[in-house]
Amino acid sequence: MPWINKSVYELKNALEKKEVTAVELSQSLLSHAKKHNKKINAIISFNPKLLDEAKDSDQRRATNTLKGELDGIPIVVKDMFCTKGLKTTAASKMLENFIPPYSSTVVKNLQNAGALLLGKANQDEFAMGGTNEYSYFGNCLNPWNTDYVAGGSSGGSAASVAGGFAPLALGTDTGGSVREPAHFCGVVGLKPTYGRLSRYGVISFASSLDQPGIMGKQVKDVALALQVSSSYDPKDATSANCEVPHFSKNITSNIKEKKIGLLLPENGVDKNIVEKFNAVKEILKEQGCKIVPVSFSYLSSVACVYHIIASSEASSNLARYDGVRYGYSADFSKKPAENLMDFYATSRAEAFGEEVKRRILLGTYVLSSGYYDAYYKKACQLRYLIAQEFKKILQSVDCILSPVSGGVALKVGANKDNLSKNYDHDWLTVGANLAGLPALSVPAGFSDKGLPIGLQLLSSHFQEQTILDVALNIEENLQTYKKKNSFCS
Amino acid sequence: MSTVKDIQKKACIKLSKKEEAYYENAFSEILKYVQQIVSVNSKEDTPIYTHDHIPKQLREDTVENSTVVNSILEQAPQKEGNYFKVPPVLGGK
After folding, report:
1. Which of A474, A467, A473, A444 is nearest to A397 (CA)?
2. CA distances from A169 to A42, A77, A288, B23 (A)
3. Which residue of B has its CA nearest to A331?
4. What CA–CA distance (Å, rounded) separates B8 from A24?
5. Which regions in chain A score pLDDT beneath 50?
6. pLDDT tens by residue, B15-51
7. Could you give the CA distance from residue A81 to residue A91 in angstroms, rounded to a whole number?
8. Interchain proximity B36–A348, CB inside 8 Å
9. Is the pTM of this model over 0.85?
10. pLDDT in the model for residue A423
11. Which residues of A220-245 are buried (b: 16+ CB within 10 A; e: fewer)?
12. Which residues of B touch A379 (CB under 8 A)?
């Protein structure tokens, strides 16, 4: 199939030159995705209107009335984003049949630029997890080796891009849920600054940490999608009212004189990742960057701070699911509910999965009287200190290079019963969420076992351009995207 | 009263006896994990984090007519006329 595994720019070019129509392109990607989805379970639901929408795009192209930069390009959207008239489940039984009456702002922005929605991606339920093994619809597997997880929570989005289903995907990142699956699946994954992309219409997990993110085959694709997706949104009280740079026009791989802080923990990082980290360090030196080692004193406690805050916010956000207004409602036809509280508690118990219940219970506990100061308040104070430390480091460097995670993709089931190990898994990604900073995972090669390795770039608020530029330079030097897995060969 | 027994009421999640035992185990492991935070040094007067990089946006609080009642009610598990239907609030145990 000639259109599989191509970048957005290659597809744009082919559409412009009339080498392919939007309908042909959509048909090609859709049949590829349907065939391989049986193996990796990356998509929960396909958009039944895709080909009609592609036909409209071809019509616009014929009449010279294109909507925007992504006209005719199929994309995949994590099932956390509300899509008007198309099922949005958050990979939960609670929302198994939920059809939103409106679309999220980011999805609207992409559709207003002409992007075509191919399908809704699998994920961990309500975005709670790092392996995509907590989905009501089953595990999502890694296209590079289906014995391994795709990562999470945006596993379906990363696997869709890596498996050639679409060149672009939307994810959400609350503690690394875009960057970690991007690292596991060998694609580019960007979590923008908190406030850069609107959260309106994105199902809430932890509101002070959640941020829509973008995954793509190549850095320039992500830069273009970021530009198209960004807008000030009065419907989101935390949307940043600031100018959106022309990321795709400004992007450059000339990073001479950039100051890069190196953050490589002494322990807990796989030797394959250390090797790639050192190789990239040498590339950056050759490119004329100034390299300085940096240290971060909260590395051992940052994941714990994150889990306390995220669970607290989740317990509050998920209180809206009561079985009354929308979502799952328990069947009381044989035995009526004892009272309203019984009605709520039964519906919630039947519809929430194991990990979601665990986090709601933890959040309820740390917010309860007598524990609030010891846990939640202290976590918020430490969050302030963590943000201050990042600020201090980023005053002396343009960006920080670090691993995304201590290891490569895990075998399916490897960590499922080890809760504390599972929770500590995010230690290198959650800092960016706690401090609201932009961070990106860029592919840097493969492990001995042929599993992808990504490295993380992190910068100051609204400095996405810096990390996109450095990532582009790394991409041009390593050309990791040229290696194909069996799905794309 | 066990931790999970107490917390499940506040969290409004009805657990079976078997689930209660399972979550009791899981919960004690998670509590051990989050207790790490107690040993991290911070001063009592350390501020609480806020996203100060986002300029505060204030807007007029104006009422707009809503035209989405029908599409919202379409998602309701049970409805009656223009209302969500719920079990009786009073009169239960």
Report:
1. A467
2. 11, 6, 33, 35
3. B77
4. 52
5. none
6. 999 999 999 988 888 888 888 888 887 888 999 999 9
7. 11
8. no
9. yes
10. 77
11. bbbbbbbbbbbbbbeebebbbebebb
12. 37
